[in-house]
C-alpha cells in the first residue's frame, strides 16, 4: 500500500508538513532520536523535493554549496554547486536509504490545523484527491518553506495585454518551451536570472537581462581544491564532508564579517572579480550594471559558477540593461529612457510571494491565529502557539544548516517533555518582558531584498534580547539553540 493510500483519521505523535529539504531532514532526525514516535510527513506535491520539484526552469541549480546545503548526516559527493536534478537525486537517496518513503503521504495538501487544549492535540485536515483526510498529533512541525509555490510574484506593468509575445515566470516554466531563434528579455537580476540566462542563451537568438538595479555577483570555479585532494587520497566520504562543511562555514563567516566591517573594500573586490570575468572593454558595464547601492550582503550575493553568466555576456549571446519599465508595447518593452527592447518572450524573474506557515488556516481553541502578532522564541516557536515549531532558514548561510539545528532542537524538546511528563509547551513572555519592544522578523538594515520587504508584515516579531532574538546568524544559532534553556520560564508547560 502506497503511503498516500493509507486511511485517514490517524492519531500521531508528530506531523511534519512538507517533504522538501526541511521536512525530509526533520523526518530523518525524528527517526534517529525518537524511533518510538509515530509520525507522518504530509506533502502537497506528488513527490518529494519542494523547491527542487516545483522549479524546473532551464539551468536550475543551488546558489549555496552542497557541503553546507546538504545534510550533515549525508555526505555530498559532487561539485560544490549542484543542479536541481542532482539535488533531487540526493534527497531521494536520503528517503530510500532511511526508509522514509513509508512515512510520507504525497498529494496531501494541508488546509487547516486547529489546536485543542481540551485534548492537547493538533487536528489537521489535508485534501487528497478531492477528499478531506483528518489527522491529529501531539506536535506540529512546519517545514513548508517560506514562499508560495503556486503563486509567483509578478508586477503588473502598463500595456502587458498589448504584447504580442509570451510572458512566463520561472516558477511556472512550461515544459514544452521552445527558445530556438527567439529574442528573450529576462526581467530581474537575482540568483534565478543569473542561473536562467546562461542556460537559455545557448538556445535563443539573444537574451537581455533587464534590471531596475544591480546585484552583487561573485564567481569562481565550480570545484574545490581541498575536496578534490581529500577525495584523491581516499579519505572517507563522511570525513571529507565534515572537513568541507567546516571550511565552507569558516570562509562564509569570515566573508560576512568583512562585509559588515569593511563594506567598501569588499565592494571593490566583488567589482574587480566581475571585471576580470567580463574581460577588457567592459569597465563602464561593471560600474553601471554590477554596482548596487546597498552594501554587500544586505541582499543576497549571487554565485556564478565557472563564470557562465559573464561568458554569455562576453560572447555577445547575452546583454544587460539597467533601466525601468515604462510599459509593454506590441514588439517588446519600452523603457524610461525611451529605448525599446524587442522580445518574442519575456521572463519575469521578479521573485516570489512570502508565505507564513504555508498559508495553512491555523487556529487555537477556535480562534484564528494572527501569526504576525506573536513573538518568536529563538525564531523557532511562537508566543500563544502550543506544540508547534517552524523552520525558517538562513539568507546568508545555507538553509539546511538551520533545518538541521531546528530538527535536533525539536527532538530535544520532545525528549524534555517526555521526561517532565507533560504534553503541552508554549513560549510565553515573562512579566519583565511584557513591554519589550517588538521588532521585525528581520531588520531592514540587516537584510532587505524586495520579497522580504513586501511580506515581512506577515511574520512574527522578535524581541530585544534572547530568547526572543531571531538572529539570522548561524554562528550564533549553532551555540545558542542546542544550549537553549528549556526551564528559564520562557516556556510554559502543562
Automatic annotation (TrEMBL):
One function term, GO molecular function aspect: flavin adenine dinucleotide binding
Cofactor(s) it depends on: FAD
UniProt-listed Gene3D superfamilies: FAD/NAD(P)-binding domain (3.50.50.60)
This protein's record includes keyword Kinase: no
Keyword Flavoprotein recorded: yes
One Pfam family named in its UniProt record: FMO-like
Key words, A-Z: FAD, Flavoprotein, Monooxygenase, NADP, Oxidoreductase
InterPro entries tied to this protein: FAD-binding_MO, FAD/NAD-bd_sf, Flavin_mOase-like
Similarity comment: family membership: Belongs to the FAD-binding monooxygenase family.
Protein's recorded name: Monooxygenase, flavin-binding family
Organism name: Piscinibacter sakaiensis (Ideonella sakaiensis)
